[in-house]
Amino acid sequence: MKKRFYLIPIIIVLAALAVRIGILIAKGSGDKKRQNQMASVAVEVDSVRFGPIREIREFTGSVYPYNQYVVAPKVSGRVIEIRKRIGDRVSPGELIARIDDAEYQQAVREAEANLKIAVAAVADARSQLELARDQKERMESLRAKELASNAEVDGAVSDFSAKESRYRLAEAQVEQREASLESSKIRFGYTRLTASRAGYIGERFVDEGSLLAPNAAVVSIIEIGSIIVRTTITERDYRLISPGQPADVTVDAFASRVFSGRVARIAPMLLENSRVAQMEVEVRNDSLLLKPGMFARVRVMIASKTRAQIVPARSIVNRNGETGIYMVPGNESIARYVPVKTGIATPDLTEILSPVLEGRAVTLGQHLLEDGSPVLLPNSSSGKAPDPAKGTKEKSGT
């Protein structure tokens, strides 16, 4: 009985030891399983290259004519002729439309007649003035010989002054009539509506027979030998773009064609409600393919390098506010995290300013990696890196 009592502690110790050994075996199996899982991370890699890169900003806007104005009369009247329709080309000074000018012609004739009357009145006043001057001089001569009284001399002088004033008034009336005639001719000229600049008829607002008031629009004329694309730029891009920079313009109507232009003007202020500034791009339009009102896309190159260290843009990662990249060095099958300083960035490529990278960049699967994580490369289920000479871009197998 005592012998059995002494065996109980030995059994308990052996049981505890067996439990401990089981726990260690289970833990070892878990660690081995996790290691196998880490080693099986499949990634996609791409090479680091040196080559040209350009950073381009794209904006959207609308096409506007280089110049646009409305032809309108300065006088009222009925339209008796319009010589142009939409799309017609016009030259400077070319007649566009005519207003009934009978009333204005009559006003010119009346003004000419009034001028003739005023000229005749001047001739009569000049004749009367000369007679009064001769009479004054004769009275003054007789008075010197004491053959005429002072009263007769004073009368002659007074009459001469009156005739001189009348002559001056007649001359002023001639000037007034001349000005009136000139005004009548100007109003008569307003009945002929002409183009002040070359261009094309963009809109026609009235037809023959319409009764127009002063400043009523007849046609609009647009100049499209050059066009302007108006767009807006954000505060972020404002410092990167300046007048004179080349710009490429495309429109949906001619999607495969690129029109070359330049940044002509940038507003010196940003709109407070939207924080954008207006920008105008001028484009030569000798082919006349670009039409006002078209939707346009503007591409402006803001930076470029002929040789830069570049990687695919999707290989860049951010960790705790730091920019970096996972690299697979040499023939290894381990991913190393490398902090980098980036430069020019495009949707497809990113410039790496520093450091100089060696190996291949991980472009897919970065979210599963940590520094030192084993990776599974294409055609390498054992974890060995493939030969880089077989291709620059590699994908993992499934």
Put the structure in a nutshell.
With 398 residues, the chain is an alpha+beta fold.
Question: What keyword list fits this structure?
Answer:
4 helices, alpha+beta, OB fold (Dihydrolipoamide Acetyltransferase, E2P), conserved putative lor/sdh protein from methanococcus maripaludis s2 fold, single chain, 398 residues, Helix Hairpins, 4 domains, disordered C terminus, 7-stranded antiparallel sheet, 6-stranded antiparallel barrel
Helices and strands in order:
Blueprint lengths: L1 H38 L4 E4 L1 E23 L5 E6 L6 E2 L4 E5 L2 H43 L5 H40 L2 E3 L4 E6 L6 E2 L6 E16 H4 L7 E6 L7 E8 L9 E9 L10 E18 L3 E4 L2 E7 L5 E6 L1 E5 L3 E6 L5 E5 L8 E2 L18 E2 L4
Helix pairs in contact: 2-3
Description of the molecule:
Helices cover 31% and strands 36% of the residues. With 398 residues, the chain is α+β, with helices and mostly antiparallel strands. The longest helix is centred in the first third of the chain and has 43 residues, at 102-144. It starts with a helix and ends with a strand.
Q: Can you count the helices?
A: 4
Dominant shape: rod-shaped
CATH hierarchy, class of the largest domain: Mainly Beta
**Span between termini:** 67 Å
Largest sheet: 7 strands, antiparallel
CATH topology-level fold name of the largest domain: conserved putative lor/sdh protein from methanococcus maripaludis s2 fold
Number of domains: 4
| Topology order in helix (H) and strand (E) letters | HEEEEEHHEEEEHEEEEEEEEEEEE
